[in-house]
Amino acid sequence: MSFDVITRVAAALGVSLDYLMIGREKATGAAELQIPASLAKFADDARLTFRQALTLLEMQRQIVAHRSATKKESLDKVDWRKFYECVKDYLRE
Questions:
Q1: Is the pTM of this model over 0.70?
Q2: CA 16 to CA 20: how far, in whole Å?
Q3: DSSP codes joined into one string, 32-85
Q4: Are 75 and 60 in contact (CB under 8 A)?
């Protein structure tokens, strides 16, 4: 299933991605995962796995976190295709 389909199914059922993927909710106190719409669209277009899309998101967040002098832009403004091309060799299948 593509990432886009998984997120749509979760939304239609009114359950979290955790519940849909592993059958239970995250431990309480954990932050809810927010996937930028632009990443969801790119992941679906590029036929990335759910894990690859999450890895891209985490890689982007880590890079931004280490750039203390750089203004943090919205994750929806990231050029996910360009970012993916730069890091695809580091993604696990």
A1: no
A2: 6
A3: PP---HHHHHHHHHTT--HHHHHHHHHHHHHHHHT-TTS----GGGS-HHHHHH
A4: yes
